[in-house]
Write a structure and sequence with these properties.
The protein is α+β, with helices and mostly antiparallel strands and about 140 residues long. The chain has helices at about 5-15, 65-80, 85-95, 120-145; strands at about 30-35, 40-50, 55-60. The longest helix has 24 residues, at about 120-145. The chain contains four helices and three strands. β1 and β2 form a beta hairpin. It has a single domain, classed as Sufe protein. Chain: A (Alpha-Beta Complex). The relative contact order is 0.20. The structure holds FE2/S2 (inorganic) cluster (FES). The site of FE2/S2 (inorganic) cluster (FES) has 9 residues, from α2 and α4. FE2/S2 (inorganic) cluster (FES) binds near residues 38, 40, 63, 66 and 129.
Length: about 140
C-alpha cells in the first residue's frame, strides 16, 4: 500500500467513523463555522478545566470527507492538552496546510494524512474549517481568562 493510499484510508476511516462527533455543553469553547464555498458547517466544542487543560473535545456538523475527517482528528489530537500546547498544534497544522515541511509533524498524529490536500487548493478550506473554529474559540477563551 502506498503512503497516499494509507493516508486516504485514514481519512475515510475518520469520515465513516468520526471520533467525538457529539454535542457537549462545554461551558467553554463552542464555535460554529461554515465554508461559504459549499455551505458545509462545523461546530467545535472544547471543555477547558481550571488549569487550562482541554479535558474534552467534540464536534458536530456536516460536510465533505475532508472537513469531517479533519474535525474528527482535531478532537483526538487536542484532548488532554493544555491550551498553549493546542495553539502549537494549530500552528503546526496550518504550516503543514501551507505546504511547509518540518518540525511539529510528529505532534499531528493522524492529521498528517491530510498533507496531500495541499495539492488541491480548493480543498484546503475543507481541511481548515474545524481549525478556524478552534482558533476562534481559543482567542475567545484567552480574552475571557
Ligand atoms: Fe464543503 Fe469540503 S466541500 S467543506
Amino acid at each position: 500500500m502506498s503512503l497516499d493510499d494509507l493516508y486516504r484510508e485514514v481519512i475515510l476511516d475518520h469520515y465513516r467513523s468520526p471520533r467525538n462527533k457529539r454535542h457537549i455543553d462545554s461551558g467553554g469553547i463552542d464555535v460554529h463555522r461554515n465554508n461559504p464555498l459549499c455551505g458545509d458547517d462545523i461546530t467545535v466544542y472544547v471543555v477547558v478545566d481550571a488549569t487550562g487543560v482541554a479535558t474534552d473535545a467534540a464536534f458536530e456538523g456536516q460536510g465533505c470527507s475532508i472537513s469531517q475527517a479533519s474535525a474528527s482528528m482535531l478532537t483526538e489530537q487536542i484532548r488532554g492538552k493544555k491550551v498553549d500546547e493546542i495553539e502549537g498544534i494549530v500552528l503546526n497544522f496550518r504550516k503543514m496546510m501551507a505546504g511547509e515541511e518540518g518540525p511539529g509533524e510528529e505532534e499531528l498524529g493522524d492529521l498528517v494524512a491530510l498533507k496531500g490536500v495541499v495539492k488541491y487548493p480548493v480543498r484546503i478550506k475543507c481541511a481548515v474549517l474545524a481549525w478556524d473554529a478552534l482558533q476562534e474559540g481559543i482567542s475567545q477563551y484567552e480574552k475571557a481568562h
